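Why this split exists: single-chain examples teach little about how molecules sit against one another. For that reason, every record in the complexes split bundles all components of an assembly together and asks for one structure covering all of them. Below is a record exactly as it appears in the raw files.
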Amino acid sequence: MPALLHVNGRVRAVEVDPGTPLLWALRDELGLTGTKFGCGMAQCGACTVHVDGVATRSCVRPVSTLAGSKVLTIEAIADDRVGQAVQQAWVRHDVAQCGYCQSGQIMSAVALLKQQRKPSDAQIDAAMAGNLCRCGSYPRIRAAVHDAARALA
Amino acid sequence: MLKQLLLQHGAAPSRRHFLVTSVAGLSGLALASFAPAALGQGAPRLPPGQNPTERPEAFVHIAPDGATTIWCNRMDMGQGIETGLAMICAEELEADWARVRTRFGDQRGAYVDPSMGMHLTGGSNSVKNSYRQYRELGARMKAMLLAAASQAWGVPAAQLTAKQGQVSGGGRSAGYGELFEAALRQPVPESVALKTVAQFQRIGKPTGLTVSADKSSGRQTYGMDIRLPGQLTAVIVRPPVFNGRLRSHDASAALQVKGVRGVYPVRLDRGGQGLAVVASGYWQAKLGRDALKLEWDLDGVPRADSERLNAQYLELVQQPGKPAPQPHFKADLAPLAQAPKKLLAEYRFPYLNHAQIEPLAVTVDLQAERADLYYASQMPGVDAMAVAQLAGLRPEQVQIHVQMAGGGFGRRATPTAEYVREALDVALQMRAAGAPAPVQVIWSREDDLKSGYYRPLTVHRAEIGFDAQGRILAWDHRIASQSILAGSPFEAFMVQQGVDMTTTEGMREPYAIPMQLSVHHPQVNVPVLWWRAVGSTHTAYVMETLIDEIAEATGQDPVAYRMQLFGREATRHRAALQLAVERSGYGRRKLKSGQAWGVAVHESFQSVVAYVVVARLQGKGKQRLVQLDEVHAGVHCNLCINPLSVEAQVQGAVAMALSTTLPGGAITLKDGVVQQSNYHDYRVARLPDYPRRVAVHIVPSTEAPTGMGEPGLPPLAPALANAVARLGGGRQRALPFVFG
């Protein structure tokens, strides 16, 4: 029986084993490839999405646990006021290098700014510590989060 | 394979030059140090009209509405080269920058590096080798647009001007898009006048990536995002020890997993064997792989062990190895015995993994007389040859669709095209079994960390004699490290008298030191490869910490000592270090209690980076940790094309170098098996590890630019180590740092 997923404002049916991580339902079943695979064990944050507004590593979150939950991915983040501000700050600061981790970085940053309108350096570090960037875009991530917070104030 | 490639490009007369320079680009070695004659020969000769600088039609397309596409003859792995090269071309083209988009070239002749004769991204060569090429391409296309307008309007070209994507003159004007089709029918001018540096409008201006918005919205696609109709996904199970073979397997349970379509034997790198599980998606393939029952044949397979290798290498460097061939590594060591002061130091560096966040992924669409491959190829020409050979196709039947890379750092350029061949073999096995389909082979993080390749484990030993003034009288230096290039097609040119130049690059320069250098290249069953900045990842560390130690031992300021020791030609080193010193406040600013300065400077790939850092030690005894507070960089890359990109590359190199100093920043082997498996046990710097203040300062210059993808990395770890020594943390003789 297909599982029903509420993704980006739409209900979608996916034909996968219930233990399948959300990441692979998004990428392989729904064609939402903006969410990335990096580690498969919640260590790098490249797969970060929002589940009911909470930043969640989709690579370890089984589809079976998502009944009635709302999933938001990078593809729809521009529809959100905070999401749009973060994306714009990311472009202003030219944060991305290879860019592969940035979907996850942005999803974590948006979740932070929804909780904390004016995060301190320490709060940004703590909230973003789970998102690796091997290119080392870290200083621009910090600057862009602060900048997005200012834009939203 | 290379010979075929060479003949394809019609460069046979300068074969030696072609290969030498190709390899230089690949490894990033400063070739001039050992083969100045080869460098002086200039670019390989190509038939008229085939030279990649004379084919603007292959690089520029302008749509009727003015949308301008510029092709990049490199793979972009985050170094921002598609934007950098587009800026250079747009400068002379007089394009409207707001309308410029970028695309990647492929394995075809137009996209070879004009001086290396092959499409290759590496050695921080892209801007250096294509700066003039992209200016000429832009200028040629502009001339053709002007000629087209001149012809259409009956106005002499000299009375027309091109600006911001518009041609105007004689009372008329038109957008480039309206003139482009007619421009393509114009002859390509043989010679073009180029702007002076003072006339540049775009070059030198901080410019965001052409793809910044795509990369901030999930729209940018990478190799792993390719979706072809009917595409299946494969994962490969590889032997636990490199080169292992399958003794037996039972795939019955795997084939029962829903979505699994087949299990196929695969020929792996270095004679190893594996099994591919092909399924409808990644998760199904992974579950199938987990269900395989396997028995490996590891008989006679050598099992590397980091602890044993360290001991073995330390033993090796007690004796001289093969002498480095360059004359400046053949100093007389006699003064060592009588030197008033002596320093003996041994250093250990572990294997390192590239750990780019996008694991390797290759999509293969194999047809009867054609193969299309989609992935972030770093050497599409070499890869295409390997594919043609293995698939029994002609080279022109192979198309490599170069994708954006989710990081690379050297991992995506293997001389054997090993990960490409593996993926192709999966497609070949599927076809042979009567189940052909486009297939995407995905490496898991564990596959990527455990299955190679690695920066080689390396041991250095230095014995230095100097006097009370810090004058270095003799320096006996030995290195033990696997050769990266031995056994590759590049061995004949880059391994000189038994010494791999990628092992010794970065030694001695720019200090006029009487040094004798020799090298041991043990054979070890661990696959090794270039890793961002290659040999300089260890040579810079050794050189810059030892120079610092001598300064300290003779009571001299580490900056003043370096300035005095620099050779006469080291003007760029002086300028870079001076800039970092001035901007950091070094020597003038009082640091907080518990903080100390650290300094290092190093040239790699012809660019110089100097760091002045501020660091602290936290905790006690063995539990001590380093906190890097500030980094002030002085950069000399000649003319800076895009200050925003240079800054990003240095900022990023700081993170990657910092990772090598942190606990867990090492790949270790035990009994032939890599012990790390994912980011929880292979440490990569995270946001909280990153210094609060990183300032990048660029020395102004109008000289032809040099690359910046790698040079920011080598001097960071030694600058930090030098600060640690000043903080009482001891001279760190190994990476990652260990406190006693």
